[in-house]
Amino acid sequence: MNGISNRIAIEPSVLYFGTPVVLLSTENQDGSFNLAPMSSAWALGQTVVLGLGRDGQTARNLGQRPDLVINLPDPALWPAVERLAPLTGRDPVPPTKAAGCRFEPDKFGAAGLHGEPSHMVRPPRVAECPLQLEARAERVQPDVSGEFVIVEAAVRKVHADPRLVVPGTDHVDPAAWSPLIYNFRHYFGLGPELGHSYRTQAPRKVEAPAVQR
Ligand SMILES: Cc1cc2nc3c(=O)[nH]c(=O)nc-3n(C[C@H](O)[C@H](O)[C@H](O)COP(=O)(O)O)c2cc1C
């Protein structure tokens, strides 16, 4: 490389550059529960930061009732996630929602997913999701554009499918867990492992092969 790349300047309509999908369960005003897919989520220690459209039912719920569950679907659940995509828990549907969006009071049923009781929060966990994080929205504030809210959610309890956990430890086995990735509005799973961080604490039976350069 001579220090000059051949990249071209583009103006993509979205910047979803490949982030895990989560399903947020929250409590509606009438005590029923909403479920919404989102992918602008990332962890900072025991806090998960979420970016949500201001006019969605999920943002509205978290502003008033801070309990939530951050459910992580695996790649096989992508059709259920996509069944939720055109639905909102808000009635009437706000004009800012994407074209084709419709109100659905029973998102669990519409997606073919099942709720199971949480331990520390009121909204249910999604039984089909292998990882479920019970959490509480500690801060909900507008973003700079005014179109979104930024939620800082403190995780209070983590539930994992035992097949994902390194036996006798609290470590998720990175070889057993695979997130569902939202990559420029297309769904992907993970490819094979390339290597690991020097900070990993999850013991592995087999070392990953060296990265070929
Ligand atoms: C895979 C996927 C990822 C999404 N990511 C986000 C996101 O990060 N933030 C957001 O506000 N909406 C996101 N959406 C759109 C919401 O799911 C959609 O606006 C939905 O109507 C919200 O439901 P609610 O109004 O009941 O909360 C995503 C949708 C899909 C299918």
Automatic annotation (TrEMBL):
What UniProt keywords apply to this chain's record, in alphabetical order? Flavoprotein, Oxidoreductase
Could you confirm whether the keyword Translocase appears in this record? no
Q: Which GO terms describe its molecular function?
A: oxidoreductase activity
List the InterPro entries. Flavin_Rdtase-like_dom, Flavoredoxin, Split_barrel_FMN-bd
Its Enzyme Commission number? Answer: 1.5.1.-
Q: Which residues form the Flavin reductase like domain?
A: 17-190
Question: Does the UniProt entry include the keyword Oxidoreductase?
Answer: yes
Q: Which cofactor does it need?
A: FMN
Q: Which family does it belong to?
A: Belongs to the flavoredoxin family.
Concerning PANTHER family, the annotation shows: FLAVOREDOXIN, FLAVOREDOXIN-RELATED-RELATED
Report what the protein is called.
Flavin reductase family protein
